[in-house]
Amino acid sequence: MVALDGGFSGETFLAEAAGERTVVRVYAGRGAARGPAAAESDAAVLRLVRGLLPVPEVLEVRRADDGAGTPALLVTSFLPGERLDLLMPRLGATARTTVGDRLGRVLGRLAQMPMVRAGELVDRDLQVRPWPFPGDLPGWVAGHQDGLATWMAGEYDALLAVAEQAQQLLDGLDRACLVHSDMNPKNLLVDPATLELTGLLDWEFAHAGLPVTDLGNLLRFDRDPAFADAVLAGYLASTGGLDGLTDPGLLLDAARAADLWALVDLASRRGENPVTEQADALLRAIATTGSLHAEPGRESWQ
Asked: Are the C-beta atoms of residues 231 and 256 closer than 8 Å to each other?
């Protein structure tokens, strides 16, 4: 087996036997920490959405065997395509718009997969366990204050103010759906010739949550207006104004507000990997400007 590039867990491998390529996920460090049912839960999510979204086929699932000292495994089919983070820099404006529209439509389809309540998916039956933390953004920020200890007091207070405003945007969203929760270009495969989305990978953070969460995740670091407009247009075309979100501007506001949950968590773990560093810089810019649409390097630090 050969480790696959793109992730930080170091638990995903490409395997080949008898001319057939498969992907093997080994639930060792981070995967094992999710509990004994993690592999079964991930497999259940893939089976749930297969045929509706471009996800791999589940070929085998194994629970950990403590007696034999072997970790849990999830074996899936290998999907064609190129990772979007590698392809995107080579795409012209028209191609980026095409990809953005198609991604938006896929996210809209995902946002229409309802769940009974918000929370984490805990087993192969995809039972939902409520989150064990405060249900609003200001409480979430307060719970991560220790991780933001390097921030100046003024920055932290400004973040709390942004969180309060963002929560007001989210209060109108009272429906839960299936959320991928790691919708970044490293987990998206695209056919370079047709620009069709061929794979939506790595569902380890999947949960039941807000419909706009994945939209905010996808547009977190890519602030190209043309790409964002295409994603939003595709999403609206797919959802038809679901959740009362019919205006692209308001939709983007809600998506960026929902993404604060992840940004705060990532920034509080600054130093773990490049993504946590990027998240810290972006969150500081948002706090300093008071704008969910801020970009690092363009804000005033006064």
From this structure: no
Task: Tell me the C-alpha distance between 296 and 154, whole Å.
Answer: 17
The rounded radius of gyration (Å) of the Cα atoms in the chain is 19
CA–CA gap between residue 288 and residue 150 (Å, rounded): 15
* DSSP of 235-296: HHHHHSSGGG--SHHHHHHHHHHHHHHHHHHHHTTTTSSHHHHHHHHHHHHHHHHT-TT--T
Which candidate, 101, 105, 57, places its Cα nearest to that of 79?
Answer: 57
Enter the pTM of the model: 0.94
Sequential pLDDT tens for the chain (302 residues): 898 876 666 799 999 988 899 999 999 988 899 999 999 999 999 999 999 999 999 999 999 998 999 999 999 999 999 999 999 999 999 999 999 999 999 999 999 999 999 999 999 999 999 999 878 999 999 999 999 999 998 999 999 999 999 999 999 999 999 999 999 999 999 999 999 999 999 999 999 999 999 999 999 998 899 999 999 999 999 999 899 999 999 999 999 999 999 999 999 999 999 999 999 999 999 999 999 999 997 644 32
Place of tokens 């984490």: 120
What tokens appear for 31 in the block? Answer: 């995967």
